[in-house]
Amino acid sequence: MMNPNKNLVIILSVCTVFLFALPGYSQNKLVTYPAPEGATLNNDFTIKVRIDGNDWLPIPSYLVKVDEVKAKDHSYEDASVGYFDFSGEVEVSVTYNKGTIRNAKIRPLSYDIQPQINGNTFTFKLDKPHNLSVEVNDDIFHNLHLFANPVDEYKPNPKDKKLIYFGPGIHHIENEELIVPSGKTVYLSGGAVLMGRINIDNAEDVKVLGRGMIYHTVKGGIRIANSKNVLVDGVITTQCATGGSDNVTIRNVKSISYYQWGDGMNVFASNNVLFDGVFCRNSDDCTTVYGTRMGFTGGCKNITMQNSTLWADVAHPIFIGIHGNVDNPEILEDLNYINIDILDHKERQIDYQGCLAINAGDENLIRNVRFENIRIENFRQGQLVNLRIFFNEKYCKAPGRGIENILFKDITYTGKNAELSIIAGYNGERKIKNIRFENLNINRQVISDDMPEKPRWYKTSDIARFFVGEHVEDLKFSK
Question: pTM for the whole thing?
Fold first, then answer.
């Protein structure tokens, strides 16, 4: 087995912890993490944070890259990442170092965080942890990704033989890959930068914890393969894929990628996977559920993403179903997407559009999918919904078998760029069945079969700007 501490460059630093309490009030706590010497930073923003009435503490602004798709090619742009931990209430100050602030925006917009602008600095308060995009002058490609975490309660003991510990500093891994055995906990301290990916393969009872980050050029980031009982919590990475695994929890993990095929949080042939409070800004699909793919075999069951934020610079925020096993057909079932903010969707290719997309290929049967309490902001280009049974010869060997029992509940879209959504089956044997839209709100208009403003000769889907093709049964819209 590889010695995980071999060839590491460790540069010690100390986090700052500030406590403040008044009689009758809950304690405020603020933890900041200085950047290690040699870290790649971005000076577009100066970030500070404080507990009200106390000294400002600096927050390092790290460089990350994001993908802007232009007319014929991709452009890799420099953005920023900052992070800290807190409880109670804190005040944040952001200074824009590139010029005049015409406007400042903090997203997701559903949080209703209103910055107060004074010159080239703006401030705002937080009373709970959030993963945020801070944008000046409507510039989404040179923005600040600000991750205000809950306080990290884990207290690592570097002498624990079950612990693979990376303290503050820059860490170079042998062969650029850390292979994690069963029973181990990997801890990336705040202020740690890992120059390699974490590979959990054929392992059980593994944890990856902390506030540190995997360097933004490391493809693959975190890989969970053929493993059981895995927890990944709190870290920043490029990607976090799960394949052939069972009982996996991904919590408060931040995924930012810029390179080709930079999917954020794929699931292949796995069961019982929970994503909770994650943030994905990716250069391909943010989150997917597939059957057989990438050497993993089988269907998927009980996959949940909740309390999360998705931003697809390319392809889909949520994508289900294209890959499977035509020789031994599979089922993808019991999938839940609950309390999610979708900040962007940009895809020019019609075949790969859809914020909420289920495309059944490779003889897959997809059933029992729930989309609930999802807020979709004014994305750049694409569709709200894409439900299709299809034969995409580029990626599939056969069409899917069916899409059944899909609920869209409390879906809100506010914007002007949505193209025509698509719901279409394949033939008389490969149908889409039992699709429910409850309280679908498009630009403050609730779409329902009994809405009074709908002309009686219209289909309800016409009002929603959905194309409903052949072989679709039992489609209903209600308040």
Answer: 0.95
